[in-house]
Amino acid sequence: MVSPEQNSMQKEALKGSMLSIFSYLLLATIKLIAGFYFLSSSLKADGLNNLSDVISSTIIAVSMSIANRPADPNHRFGHERYETIGSIIASLLMFMIGFNVISQSIRRLFQQEYPHPNSYSIVVALFSVVFLFIIYRYISKLALKTKSIGLKATAKDMTSDMLTTVGTIVGTFGALLGYPQIDIIISIIVGIIIMRSAFEIFSESTFVLSDGFDHEALQQYRKVILSTEHVHSVSHIRGRMSGPLIYLDVIIEIDGYLTVLESHHITEIIEKRLSEEFQIHDVDIHVEPFRIDE
Question: I need a labelling partner for 286 at 20 to 30 A (CA). Which of 2, 92, 94, 121 fits?
Fold first, then answer.
């Protein structure tokens, strides 16, 4: 069962996702209008990137909203994994947008459809970098606080967005100096960065969805358990993620002469320590008697 504190963090993460939607929508509108008006292909590509971010952020927001639903008879562990599913869908959409930007830019490069951007497009790009950096700082801190996979994906995407906008500025400068092909080349680089971010988000999300878990984290949990009094061995430990929540299955070996009540007390101590030190949501501990090989 999700605690009131975790429910509050989930709602806070959802608000952060809504903020990212509004921010990307604003930037996409400004960049696309400015890109067409100032004849900047890299600025238009950057605007399309932000437009894809609007759609992907919306998908993540919807999935986070579903993830906030309480457990029901058909979802005993809750709905947190919907957030991870939303991140995967968003990454696939980003990949498609990135591929389209690259293919269109290559076509214009070979056909020598060079743009002649206006210097005012640089002002638009600079505004975008500053604005996006402010939002990025807020989203990244919120992602760290709430441990939201969706917000982590959004923050990572914003990092690549800032880099692509810097590339837009470089491309515009190149075109103004008499090298218009640089603007198109930058558009291709923008597409590559979009696809790379999509791949990173996809890889992380599928790792979590397939029950992948950090081996080093498991070793840290093992050390804490072994340091608990009366615990002789940790014969088995495995973990999985469900959204931001961590679930552990553990088998420990203790003195076989301890009573059931004493054994239960030891498991409660372990659960409390893991919760306080690592914010583990749920720990399922199975107790076995410790055997000394004769």
Answer: 2
